[in-house]
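User: I've been trying to design a sequence by hand for this structure and keep getting stuck. Would you show me what you'd pick, starting by listing the structure so we're on the same page?

Assistant: Good idea, let's start from the same input. This is the structure you sent:
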């Protein structure tokens, strides 16, 4: 977990000090590695070190992993109960923390684009169906990012979600634009399935295309696929 530098911990000598005071003056372990900064889009030379310590409200041993990203950058202080004795173990903790950002981005996409932020489902079967629908929609969008569909994806984005910003064209995973392009395409040309009931036409009650209510309606009209 991320630890604030001003919060106090008990060091190996039994003294209660702030996190930045415990790491002050300690040399980093091993060689520096380059970590990609997604916000500034640059590589940063990063070093790590770890110190054993304790917390007054936790009985087990703890380790404070300090991540230094160069001069002018605020260090990260990561608190873990996993033993950290070598630099490789410290880097494992750092990479696990960095991967959590990617998981949060996936949840943000599903909450915003698939509209699952405010759901009120009590029964297990209703929750199971909702998760299956979200998985189906998300898997469909991820399949559209595969290499064999590169030409079709570029054509779809060019005609239905065109943008002038060159940075958007260089994006490796244009998941948001793909969802918007499919939404506009299906609004103009509602999908039809052979042998199934077509998706209903626009009426006084119409859900945003590719949202969770849209997938739920399509799921009901297709005859309960799950």
């Amino acid at each position: 977990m991320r630890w604030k530098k001003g919060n106090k911990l008990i060091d190996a000598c039994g003294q209660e000090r702030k996190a930045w005071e415990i790491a002050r003056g300690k040399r980093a372990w091993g060689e520096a590695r380059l970590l990609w900064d997604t916000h500034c889009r640059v590589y940063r030379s990063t070093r790590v070190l770890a110190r054993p310590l304790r917390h007054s409200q936790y009985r087990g041993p703890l380790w404070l992993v300090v991540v230094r990203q160069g001069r002018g950058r605020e260090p990260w202080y990561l608190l873990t109960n996993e033993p950290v004795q070598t630099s490789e173990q410290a880097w494992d903790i750092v990479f696990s923390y960095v991967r959590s950002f990617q998981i949060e981005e996936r949840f943000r996409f599903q909450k915003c684009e698939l509209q699952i932020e405010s759901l009120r489902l009590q029964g297990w079967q209703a929750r199971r169906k909702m998760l299956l629908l979200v998985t189906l929609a998300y898997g469909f969008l991820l399949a559209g990012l595969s290499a064999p569909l590169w030409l079709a994806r570029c054509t779809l984005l060019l005609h239905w979600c065109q943008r002038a910003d060159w940075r958007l064209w260089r994006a490796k995973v244009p998941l948001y634009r793909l969802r918007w392009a499919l939404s506009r395409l299906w609004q103009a040309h509602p999908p039809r399935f052979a042998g199934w009931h077509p998706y209903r036409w626009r009426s006084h009650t119409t859900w945003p295309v590719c949202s969770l209510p849209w997938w739920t309606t399509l799921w009901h009209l297709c005859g309960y696929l799950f």
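That's my pick for every position. To get oriented when you compare it with your attempt: The chain has seven helices and six strands. The chain has two domains: 8-109, 124-221.
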